[in-house]
Design a protein that fits this description.
Oligomer: single chain
CATH class: Alpha Beta
Shape: globular
Structural class: alpha/beta
Number of strands: 7
Largest sheet: 7 strands, mixed
């Protein structure tokens, strides 16, 4: 009984792998919504966490707001505890006032939206982003992580609030986390399919423009190590 119920839920919530998928999704083991299938109506305006003065969620010293709820449910997600749209506590004026006060500090470069899925929590994040722009202009930058690919967000039929939030964002890290493509040396992302996107330039050009400060690390294996290893394997045989 449990198996048939879960199968029914999957078929209702998630698109078949050939149904209007966005390009650039290299695995069938991810949930792939059709255009407009998931909207901010799924949100309960809940926030899982707010962290101040970090250097891990984007460039510089930042504040990070984690919204609740994510139907992508990537295998190996480190935030699986907040997949539930009702996790955490409701966003409120007190928290927003704290965010604005923190951003007013000269050493804070900006804010990062994470989750959960920020593009399905636009009821919270779009008004907040607009208020940040009204008060600080582009003195403070806005970063955002999303499970959507850029191409999915740009496709016909996607809900317009996603584009409205994108227009407030400076840098977007896009795409599902794919466990098989994990690389600990990547800058600000977990798997190699994900991209760090310069949003204003991408919107202007109509194509993905990678953030110009990208600098992934590279694994270095000295040549001498390879020779020593080959010699050892030959001796063992």
């Amino acid at each position: 009984m449990t198996s048939s119920v879960s199968t029914s839920i999957r078929r209702h919530d998630f698109a078949p792998t050939d149904a209007n998928r966005g390009p650039g999704i290299p695995t069938i083991r991810a949930n792939n919504p059709k255009a407009g299938q998931w909207t901010n109506a799924m949100s309960h305006n809940m926030v899982a966490d707010y962290k101040r003065f970090l250097m891990t969620d984007g460039e510089g010293i930042r504040c990070s707001l984690y919204v609740s709820g994510c139907p992508f449910r990537c295998e190996g997600c480190y935030n699986s505890s907040i997949w539930d749209f009702q996790a955490g506590h409701e966003y409120n004026d007190r928290l927003e006032a704290q965010i604005m006060d923190d951003l007013s500090l000269s050493y804070v470069q900006g804010i990062t939206f994470l989750g959960g899925e920020p593009l399905l929590n636009t009821g919270v994040l779009l008004p907040l982003a607009r208020r940040i722009r009204e008060r600080f202009g582009h003195e403070k930058d806005i970063w955002c992580w999303t499970g959507y690919t850029w191409e999915e967000l740009m496709r016909d039929g996607e809900s317009p609030d996603k584009r409205e939030l994108l227009e407030q964002i400076d840098v977007l890290v896009d795409g599902r986390y794919i466990k098989d493509l994990h690389d600990s040396l990547l800058q600000f992302r977990g798997s190699s399919n994900q991209r760090i996107i310069d949003v204003p330039r991408s919107l202007e050009r109509g194509e993905v423009v990678i953030w110009p400060k990208l600098h992934d690390q590279i694994r270095f294996i000295p040549e001498i190590y390879g020779k020593d290893r080959s010699a050892g394997e030959g001796a063992a045989s």
